[in-house]
Design a protein that fits this description.
Length: 208
Protein backbone atom coordinates (compact mmCIF):
# COMPACT_ATOMS: atom_id res chain seq x y z
CA UNK A 1 0.00 0.00 0.00
CA UNK A 2 1.75 3.18 -1.18
CA UNK A 3 0.73 5.92 1.21
CA UNK A 4 3.40 7.94 2.99
CA UNK A 5 2.76 10.74 5.48
CA UNK A 6 4.50 14.03 4.75
CA UNK A 7 5.73 15.60 7.95
CA UNK A 8 5.62 19.40 8.05
CA UNK A 9 5.54 21.85 10.94
CA UNK A 10 3.00 24.11 9.26
CA UNK A 11 -0.03 23.61 7.06
CA UNK A 12 -2.55 20.83 6.80
CA UNK A 13 -1.27 17.24 7.09
CA UNK A 14 -0.60 15.71 3.68
CA UNK A 15 -0.08 12.21 2.31
CA UNK A 16 1.99 11.16 -0.69
CA UNK A 17 0.14 8.56 -2.79
CA UNK A 18 2.66 6.46 -4.74
CA UNK A 19 1.74 4.31 -7.75
CA UNK A 20 2.61 0.64 -7.12
CA UNK A 21 3.43 0.20 -10.82
CA UNK A 22 5.59 3.18 -11.87
CA UNK A 23 6.19 4.94 -8.51
CA UNK A 24 4.61 8.18 -9.70
CA UNK A 25 3.37 10.19 -6.72
CA UNK A 26 0.47 12.53 -6.03
CA UNK A 27 0.17 14.57 -2.83
CA UNK A 28 -3.25 15.08 -1.22
CA UNK A 29 -4.40 16.57 2.06
CA UNK A 30 -5.28 13.85 4.57
CA UNK A 31 -4.80 13.26 8.31
CA UNK A 32 -1.86 11.15 9.43
CA UNK A 33 -2.34 7.79 11.08
CA UNK A 34 -0.99 4.27 11.08
CA UNK A 35 -0.98 2.29 7.83
CA UNK A 36 -4.30 0.78 6.91
CA UNK A 37 -6.18 3.34 8.98
CA UNK A 38 -8.88 5.80 7.97
CA UNK A 39 -6.06 8.15 6.98
CA UNK A 40 -5.11 5.92 4.04
CA UNK A 41 -8.76 5.48 3.11
CA UNK A 42 -9.23 9.25 2.96
CA UNK A 43 -6.08 9.67 0.87
CA UNK A 44 -7.20 6.88 -1.48
CA UNK A 45 -10.63 8.46 -1.90
CA UNK A 46 -9.13 11.83 -2.75
CA UNK A 47 -6.57 10.50 -5.21
CA UNK A 48 -9.25 8.40 -6.93
CA UNK A 49 -11.06 11.62 -7.76
CA UNK A 50 -7.93 12.52 -9.76
CA UNK A 51 -8.25 9.43 -11.95
CA UNK A 52 -6.20 7.00 -9.85
CA UNK A 53 -7.42 3.49 -9.01
CA UNK A 54 -7.19 1.57 -5.73
CA UNK A 55 -8.03 -2.07 -6.40
CA UNK A 56 -6.92 -5.03 -4.31
CA UNK A 57 -4.78 -2.79 -2.14
CA UNK A 58 -2.79 -1.74 -5.21
CA UNK A 59 -2.64 1.93 -6.08
CA UNK A 60 -2.26 2.84 -9.76
CA UNK A 61 -1.85 6.23 -11.44
CA UNK A 62 -4.15 7.08 -14.40
CA UNK A 63 -1.58 5.93 -16.99
CA UNK A 64 -0.95 2.57 -15.30
CA UNK A 65 -4.67 2.04 -14.76
CA UNK A 66 -5.30 2.66 -18.47
CA UNK A 67 -2.64 0.07 -19.36
CA UNK A 68 -4.16 -2.42 -16.92
CA UNK A 69 -7.56 -2.04 -18.57
CA UNK A 70 -6.08 -2.57 -22.03
CA UNK A 71 -4.31 -5.74 -20.90
CA UNK A 72 -7.50 -6.98 -19.28
CA UNK A 73 -9.54 -6.38 -22.44
CA UNK A 74 -6.97 -8.17 -24.60
CA UNK A 75 -6.68 -11.14 -22.23
CA UNK A 76 -8.38 -14.20 -23.67
CA UNK A 77 -8.51 -12.87 -27.20
CA UNK A 78 -6.92 -14.85 -29.98
CA UNK A 79 -3.37 -13.81 -30.57
CA UNK A 80 -3.21 -11.59 -33.60
CA UNK A 81 -1.47 -13.09 -36.60
CA UNK A 82 1.68 -11.08 -37.22
CA UNK A 83 2.33 -10.74 -40.95
CA UNK A 84 5.68 -11.99 -42.14
CA UNK A 85 8.20 -9.19 -42.27
CA UNK A 86 9.95 -8.55 -45.57
CA UNK A 87 13.52 -9.88 -45.70
CA UNK A 88 16.29 -7.42 -44.91
CA UNK A 89 17.88 -8.05 -48.33
CA UNK A 90 16.27 -8.52 -51.76
CA UNK A 91 16.09 -11.95 -53.31
CA UNK A 92 17.99 -12.70 -56.52
CA UNK A 93 14.77 -12.37 -58.49
CA UNK A 94 14.03 -9.00 -56.92
CA UNK A 95 17.56 -7.81 -57.64
CA UNK A 96 17.13 -8.75 -61.32
CA UNK A 97 13.81 -6.90 -61.51
CA UNK A 98 15.28 -3.78 -59.90
CA UNK A 99 18.33 -3.75 -62.17
CA UNK A 100 16.21 -4.34 -65.30
CA UNK A 101 13.93 -1.44 -64.44
CA UNK A 102 16.89 0.80 -63.58
CA UNK A 103 18.28 0.13 -67.07
CA UNK A 104 15.06 1.57 -68.48
CA UNK A 105 14.62 4.61 -66.25
CA UNK A 106 18.15 5.64 -65.15
CA UNK A 107 20.71 7.53 -67.24
CA UNK A 108 24.09 6.28 -66.05
CA UNK A 109 25.91 8.89 -68.16
CA UNK A 110 24.16 11.80 -66.43
CA UNK A 111 23.88 9.88 -63.16
CA UNK A 112 20.22 10.76 -62.73
CA UNK A 113 16.79 9.30 -63.44
CA UNK A 114 15.07 10.10 -66.71
CA UNK A 115 11.98 12.29 -66.57
CA UNK A 116 10.50 12.25 -63.04
CA UNK A 117 11.41 8.79 -61.73
CA UNK A 118 13.12 8.24 -58.36
CA UNK A 119 14.22 5.38 -56.11
CA UNK A 120 10.79 5.57 -54.49
CA UNK A 121 8.85 5.26 -57.77
CA UNK A 122 10.91 2.24 -58.82
CA UNK A 123 10.35 0.64 -55.42
CA UNK A 124 6.62 1.35 -55.65
CA UNK A 125 6.31 -0.27 -59.09
CA UNK A 126 8.18 -3.40 -58.01
CA UNK A 127 6.76 -3.42 -54.47
CA UNK A 128 10.19 -3.59 -52.86
CA UNK A 129 12.05 -1.55 -50.26
CA UNK A 130 13.32 1.86 -51.51
CA UNK A 131 16.62 1.20 -49.75
CA UNK A 132 17.22 -1.84 -51.96
CA UNK A 133 16.76 0.29 -55.08
CA UNK A 134 19.11 2.95 -53.71
CA UNK A 135 21.82 0.41 -52.91
CA UNK A 136 21.69 -1.29 -56.33
CA UNK A 137 21.47 2.03 -58.16
CA UNK A 138 24.61 3.34 -56.40
CA UNK A 139 26.46 0.06 -56.96
CA UNK A 140 25.76 -0.39 -60.66
CA UNK A 141 24.52 2.90 -62.13
CA UNK A 142 25.44 6.09 -60.29
CA UNK A 143 25.39 8.03 -57.03
CA UNK A 144 22.88 10.65 -58.15
CA UNK A 145 19.35 10.03 -56.92
CA UNK A 146 17.77 13.00 -58.70
CA UNK A 147 16.03 13.08 -62.05
CA UNK A 148 15.82 15.21 -65.20
CA UNK A 149 12.71 17.00 -64.01
CA UNK A 150 14.38 17.94 -60.74
CA UNK A 151 17.49 19.11 -62.60
CA UNK A 152 15.40 21.23 -64.97
CA UNK A 153 13.45 22.71 -62.09
CA UNK A 154 16.67 23.47 -60.23
CA UNK A 155 17.98 25.21 -63.36
CA UNK A 156 14.80 27.27 -63.69
CA UNK A 157 14.98 28.28 -60.05
CA UNK A 158 18.65 29.25 -60.36
CA UNK A 159 17.91 31.27 -63.50
CA UNK A 160 15.04 33.07 -61.80
CA UNK A 161 17.14 33.85 -58.73
CA UNK A 162 19.95 35.22 -60.91
CA UNK A 163 17.62 37.51 -62.87
CA UNK A 164 15.72 38.51 -59.73
CA UNK A 165 18.94 39.45 -57.93
CA UNK A 166 20.08 41.46 -60.97
CA UNK A 167 16.74 43.30 -61.06
CA UNK A 168 16.95 43.90 -57.32
CA UNK A 169 20.46 45.33 -57.69
CA UNK A 170 19.32 47.60 -60.52
CA UNK A 171 16.36 48.83 -58.46
CA UNK A 172 18.62 49.51 -55.50
CA UNK A 173 20.98 51.53 -57.72
CA UNK A 174 18.06 53.54 -59.13
CA UNK A 175 16.70 54.08 -55.64
CA UNK A 176 20.11 55.33 -54.49
CA UNK A 177 20.36 57.67 -57.48
CA UNK A 178 16.84 58.96 -56.81
CA UNK A 179 17.66 59.51 -53.15
CA UNK A 180 20.75 61.50 -54.16
CA UNK A 181 18.69 63.63 -56.55
CA UNK A 182 16.03 64.24 -53.90
CA UNK A 183 18.72 65.37 -51.47
CA UNK A 184 20.13 67.76 -54.10
CA UNK A 185 16.71 69.28 -54.76
CA UNK A 186 16.12 69.66 -51.01
CA UNK A 187 19.37 71.64 -50.79
CA UNK A 188 18.25 73.83 -53.72
CA UNK A 189 14.93 74.45 -52.01
CA UNK A 190 16.68 75.52 -48.82
CA UNK A 191 18.96 77.79 -50.85
CA UNK A 192 15.95 79.35 -52.57
CA UNK A 193 14.26 79.96 -49.23
CA UNK A 194 17.43 81.67 -48.02
CA UNK A 195 17.53 83.91 -51.09
CA UNK A 196 13.87 84.84 -50.70
CA UNK A 197 14.47 85.71 -47.05
CA UNK A 198 17.41 87.95 -47.93
CA UNK A 199 15.71 89.80 -50.81
CA UNK A 200 12.61 90.75 -48.82
CA UNK A 201 14.27 92.91 -46.11
CA UNK A 202 16.53 94.57 -48.68
CA UNK A 203 13.60 95.82 -50.73
CA UNK A 204 11.83 97.06 -47.61
CA UNK A 205 14.87 99.16 -46.65
CA UNK A 206 14.84 100.86 -50.07
CA UNK A 207 11.18 101.77 -49.75
CA UNK A 208 11.81 103.47 -46.41
Amino acid sequence: MAFEAIRARQGAPRVSCICDECLRSEIVAAPHGRRGSDSDDQAAAKVQRLGWSFIGKRLRCPACEARRKVVKVNTGKRKAVVPAQPPRAPTKAQKREIIELLHDVYDAGKECYRRNDTDETVASVLEVMPGWVTALRKEFFGDGGGNEEMTALAGDLESFLTSAKAAQSECEQKAQALATEIARVEQLRKRLAGIEGAVGPRLLSRVK
